[in-house]
Amino acid sequence: MAPVPISPINVGHIDDVQELRKARPATIPERFVRDMTERPALATALQPPGTVPIIDFSRLVTGNKDEYKSEMLQLTRACEEWGFFQVINHGIDLSLLESIEKVAGDFFVLPLEEKQKYPMLPGTVQGYGQAFVFSEDQKLDWCNMFALGLEPHFIRVPKLWPAKPLKFSETVEVYSGEVRKLCQHLLEYIAMTLNLRADFFEEMFGVAVQAIRMNYYPPCARPDLVLGLSPHSDGSALTVLQQGKGGSVGLQILKDNKWMPVQPAPNAFVINIGDTLEVLTNGKYKSVEHRAVTHKEKDRLSIVTFYAPSYEIELGPIPELVDENNPCKFRTYNHGEYSKHYVTSKLQGKKTLEFAKVESKKPT
User: Fold this and answer.
1) 275-324, pLDDT tens digit by residue?
2) CA 276 – CA 87 distance, rounded (Å)
3) Start and end of every Fe2OG dioxygenase domain (predicted)?
4) Is the CB of residue 349 less than 8 Å from the CB of residue 231?
5) Pairing mode of beta strands 290-292, 84-88
6) What is the pLDDT of residues 141-181, one digit of tens each?
7) Would you state the torsion angle of the CA atoms of residues 69, 75, 78, 80, taken in this order, to the nearest 10 degrees?
8) CA 72, CA 193: separation in Å to the nearest integer?
9) Under the phi-then-psi rule, with left for phi > 0, alpha for psi from -120 to 50, and beta for the rest, what region is 246?
10) Does the pTM of the predicted model rise above 0.85?
11) Helix 94-108 with 168-193: angle, nearest 10 deg
12) What span, in angstroms and rounded, lies between the C-alpha atoms of 81 and 171?
């Protein structure tokens, strides 16, 4: 979410997918139609959703010795083998989850001219629109986004915080504060799975960067031709996903070279490891490529929180996780520098992580 000063970018005309849905065109506009190799297979979309590991957070916090040990083993397995897990009994009031879902949903149903008062300018990642678009011939996602930088305060763009719906800003503030605490606690337990001090990441990260992005995926007449969100890994340390109730199953993760749909557990957060943790753990815990698909009849709303180190921090593999059997896979780099690289690159699998690899040359 770094504010990135860049030269003007010609992205061409970008249709608003909610307006397209209302118009119900006979054919999907060409800019949304994916190449054959990128299209989601209907068989994948129709197969039963898989279940990523589930972590009962209450057993980590207040469980007995056996419950704690069992949950820590499950967390270790989730980080090593999946890069994704779900957290239940996370301690965040369910009414707050309902509130953030309501204000997000209410924002997306506002008239287009109201939402366009908060534009996501080309090359930036805050405001309303589509992020990661850098050319006029680039394929577009079947998704509308609204994103805000939260912490530290200097990354905020006050004019992008909407006046409507009422209580939007207040709800985002309270919700984000609770999710921030959850991220801090999860990183304590993740540190301990690596035999590090519980406060290792908190001390290293400084004033952690936090951002929120709300994604709305309208139904699409041809879900076999489009993607809701292009395949990518996240640049964060941790990403926290809340999916709106009653929506389609849209999240898919690349597991064993196959796209697996993920069914969120009720009132759970879906957590995934970002590129930053892959670098810090020297590849022991990997960020995982994921994407979103659409549905012919159902819409989908998701609320995503990104949590990452301060931009000033120099990052590289943690020395304790580098040895003869696990040589250093990544160079040391400035996190702000990496963030600029991430937000000025289109979503393309795990390509942005090449920035940090030892064998990769520093981009010019």
Assistant:
1) 999 999 999 999 999 999 999 999 999 999 999 999 999 999 999 999 98
2) 20
3) 207-309
4) yes
5) unpaired
6) 999 999 999 999 999 999 999 999 999 999 999 999 999 99
7) -90
8) 7
9) left
10) yes
11) 130
12) 35
Beta partners for residue 334, in sequence order = 314
β-pair partners for 293: none
User: Which two three-digit tokens encode residue 76?
Assistant: 């270790």
Token pair listed for 40:
């989601």
Q: For the beta carbon of residue 170, count every other beta carbon within 10 angstroms.
A: 11
- Strand pairing of 333-334 and 269-273? unpaired
* Distances 39 to 11, 44, 231, 256, 294 between C-alpha atoms, Å: 22, 11, 11, 18, 11
